[in-house]
Design goal:
This protein has 4 helices and 18 strands. The protein is an alpha+beta fold and 253 residues long. It folds into 2 domains: 117 residues, DNA Polymerase III, Chain A, domain 2; 99 residues, Proliferating Cell Nuclear Antigen. The protein has a 13-stranded mixed β-sheet with strand order 6-2-3-4-18-17-16-10-14-13-12-11-15. α1 runs antiparallel to α2. The N and C termini lie far apart (48 Å).
Length: 253
């Protein structure tokens, strides 16, 4: 056993897994003494996902090497994670000799356990860097509000344009005889808002790519939205226990 961790809430773990598996075909985990990480590009290179789960996130955490890397297929991980209930903790144990990840749900009330074994994939994990771009717009809002904006825009079009003005942020979708517009201001619903440079600042994004991040909104209280003129959007979801999920989305030009 080179890696073992117990996460205290199986349903929240399920939402995290559903978000990362929606964007990726396989999940490259890296476990270090500081915590558990995922950093990967989607197969079409349109999104990058960065999951950070520090040691403090877990009830128990142990890694026997400086760095342990293992890759699991998204579909297998998702199917197993979906079986967790709100009464469960989830234990992850890497069994390298058997080339599998052991996932055990532990009922906190009864102690009943259920175990799934997920096969590991043979893969080379790239060392990736996040985009080095200056994003001039930073807005923080409730995750549920962001979820509603994306779902509203999808009714109208397959893309949404965000426009940052000095005193407000707008989301706008347009198609044949249909239009959607949401105006966001401090307190309604923006919690914080900052614009650098010369507004207005505009960027368009595919709604399907934004929608892939929305499962994280089910377990996050807030999301920080950052973008720049025709630049990637950076979505940062603050998850329980100090974890974060960062979702980079390429713009539509």
């Amino acid at each position: 056993m080179t890696f073992k961790a117990i996460y205290p809430a199986a349903t929240k773990f399920k939402y995290i897994v559903e978000t990362i598996t929606k964007a990726l075909d396989e999940i490259p985990f890296m476990a270090t003494a500081e915590g558990l990480y995922v950093k990967s590009l989607s197969p079409d290179k349109t999104t990058m996902l960065v999951l950070t789960m520090p040691v403090t996130t877990f009830e128990e955490y142990n890694v026997e090497k400086d760095k342990v890397v293992f890759v699991v297929p998204s579909d297998e991980l998702k199917r197993a994670a979906k079986r967790g209930t709100r009464n469960d903790m989830v234990e992850l144990v890497l069994e390298e000799d058997q080339r599998r990840l052991k996932m055990t749900f532990i009922d906190k009330k009864t102690g009943v356990t259920r175990t799934f074994y997920i096969p590991l994939r043979e893969a080379v994990v790239e060392e990736l860097n996040e985009p080095q771009v200056e994003l001039n717009v930073v807005a923080r809002l409730n995750a549920d509000d962001f979820k509603n904006i994306v779902r509203d825009a999808k009714i109208v079009s397959d893309e949404v344009e965000f426009t940052a003005h000095e005193d407000r942020l707008e989301a706008h979708s347009l198609s044949m005889q249909k239009e959607y517009r949401c105006i966001m201001e401090i307190g309604n619903p923006l919690i914080t808002y900052e614009v650098k440079g010369n507004p207005p600042i505009r960027a368009k994004y595919a709604i399907d790519l934004l929608q892939a991040s929305l499962k994280a909104a089910s377990t996050a209280d807030t999301v920080t939205v950052e973008f720049g003129e025709a630049l990637p959007m950076k979505l940062t979801f603050d998850l329980p226990g100090g974890s974060t999920l960062v979702y980079w989305v390429s713009p539509r030009v």
